[in-house]
Task: structure prediction
Amino acid sequence: MTKIKVMDETLANKIAAGEVVEKCSSIVKELVENSIDAHAKSIIINLEEGGKKLIEVIDDGDGMNKEDAILAFQRHATSKIYKDDDLFFIDTLGFRGEALPSIASVSKTDLRTSDGGVGTHIIIEGGKLLENTPSDSRKGTSVKITNLFYNTPARLKYLKSDQSELASCVSFVERLALSHPEIAFNLNHGGSLVVKTSGSNDLLKTIHEIYGLQVSSRMLEVRATSDDFDLYGYVCKPEILKSNRNHMIVIVNDRIVRNMDINRAINDAYYTYKPDIKYPIVVLKITTDPTLVDVNIHPTKQDIKLSKMDVLYDLIVTTIKKALYQALLVPDAIERIPVSNPVKTEVVENIVKEREEEYNKDMTQTTFDFVRGEEDTQEEETVVNPEMKKLKLYPVGVAHGTYIIAEDETGIYLIDQHAAQERVNYERNMRALKAKEVHTTELLFPITIELSGSEFLTVKKEVPHLQELGFDIEEFGMNTFVIKAHPTWLREGYEEESIRRIIDLIVGGISHIDPVKFNESIAITLACKMSIKANMHISHEAQEELLNELCACDNPYNCPHGRPTIIKFSIYDLERMFKRSMN
Result:
């Protein structure tokens, strides 16, 4: 007797369900994506008990005739692809033909659909057809899922609490709404409206509908193009960062994706604009030739592989950095937008209009033509921090030995003296590191640095780069280096400590493979060490000098770790706080 047998189709579907249906949001994802592929303009999602009791998706899409409705529940039956070559030109969200049969095998599925003619009503439980009857002719499809995992109790017990399952469903629907702002989404839970978008096809308005005005009013439009990629979307100002990556939403060819390289590019674009433990709110839509994208590497189709990732990385980093740089302003100390107040649609539309006008005026929809390793020399010059250039700040004191108090005719300013000098020193260090001509000074007493064998080999790889920066470094016995000279920009009196910190950076993993990050890490580390600390008294003359140096900086608004250097209290803010103004 043979040991190998063809698996029963119901059993095969249950196994496939283990890959496709991980939790309630997996079912919501598959059903809503089918609605999107069916060209729906309105999608309603109804949930009970986080989706464990009921998941219902209703759309006004193309619908199906009777034959297609039955075929849709067979494994690998799909209207999306027909031949091998179609895998290289996928422009739909679904294409495997596994979702519906997998879901139906572990639940009770009630489907009503019509393409405009006589409708079809199908009920399937545990993969078995119970009913196939005519239905109403409302064009579109509704799918109702109940008794989830009733026949696979091992999977049922691993579902999380109602609130956790609901949070996962809401998060994914929000992402779908942002990826398709032209579709109106409504998500209800227990009869209460949780998510609602208008389908206005305006991405900023959809961001407002998802996140609220506090976020949408602080988003910056980004737009760029290269030979292979088009970018469009919104990125947040550094003042509204989050503690996790969940709000970095990447959409490739209208598909929400997870890609570590793209996330790294976004995060690198915010380098020196934010702390390492914080992450931006980003909605970034990437359009490219389908042949450059492989979505067929996981059943969820969210993990993708991209060709020409190096080109895309440069495009993302440069575009976001440009938007952040041009939008830098001194942050106000007083929040002007009440988070809890409802905002009328007209207000949001005005914000959208103002943002578009501002973008067209200031950014002129700059088109980037990128070549790997080359800078865009055609880029238009912009005025460096014009707001700061206009400030005539006069220091009047220091609070807690840390915050310089300054004033002008528009209000008062608090300046973090350590963060401010850190920014000044960082930019000075970066200019020195980029300089073509390197000035060095010899050490009176050479510095020897002893390392372990692995550390020695790590540093040895970077010796040529250190020599380019102006360090006279060479091997000196077993696992030891001797340094006889250093670049002149190292802070006097802290030469040895600075050199040892640079060696520690290299040992810690920073690599010359990315020379920009290598130099920036050195500049940041030494800038921190070279700066005055909190609770350190400085003279009035030193305060004036620091303010002048800060105003002259390329980016005076935050330190290289992303913390703000300066905060403003306007005259209006002060009058409101002291009840001099009641408006």
In short: Residues 14-18, 80-89, 336-349, 354-383 have pLDDT under 50 and may be disordered. Residues 162-179 form the longest helix (18 residues).
